């Protein structure tokens, strides 16, 4: 009788153990199902974000696709450049802070170029009207800086340049560019590339020396631009 009771107890324990194992198995399956669902949701979110980036920056997406297939070179970019810029690195910027994003984008590209320690020419469209007209004529419309040109090729704006840098291609595109060994700002303009006109002190007006012109005491200064500035004689 005792042996029978012991067998019954053992069967009860075994049944309880199997029941517990089944419950644990179901719990594990539910956890795995939740994990798979969470992972699937994350993947869908990542794909949606990638599609959004691709839609907003089609040119950058094309460059990414091309860079995965083969090496990217300057010949893959549009063959347009400013006057005298076939072998130069030229960056169009603005120092105006009216539009914060534009100002920050210009600072970002400037910082990237300086980090490579290469020589480049910066053209601030807010300081010199001729630069703005030049840029609009090259690109065929009223575009907003920053815009980068490397050795006769149009690279693009902030999104394109930052994307190339993140993919490791910007440095390769700048290969062969002369190194800038000067690590201090220009004494004449402090990186501004312009200084105050010494002829009119920035007023854009000078006293006329023409005695025949008695009606006008002042004439337009012939040396400076519309902002009373002249190109720096040291670094430009």
UniProtKB/TrEMBL annotation:
SUPFAM superfamilies in the cross-refs: Thioredoxin-like
PANTHER family found in the cross-reference section: EMB|CAB81925.1-RELATED (PTHR45669:SF14), GLUTAREDOXIN DOMAIN-CONTAINING CYSTEINE-RICH PROTEIN CG12206-RELATED (PTHR45669)
Domain Glutaredoxin residues, every copy: 89-155
Short name of any one Pfam family annotated for the protein: GRXCR1-2_C
Gene3D superfamilies hit by this protein: Glutaredoxin
Origin species: Abrus precatorius (Indian licorice)
Name assigned to this protein: Uncharacterized protein At5g39865
Entry superkingdom: Eukaryota
Transmembrane regions: none
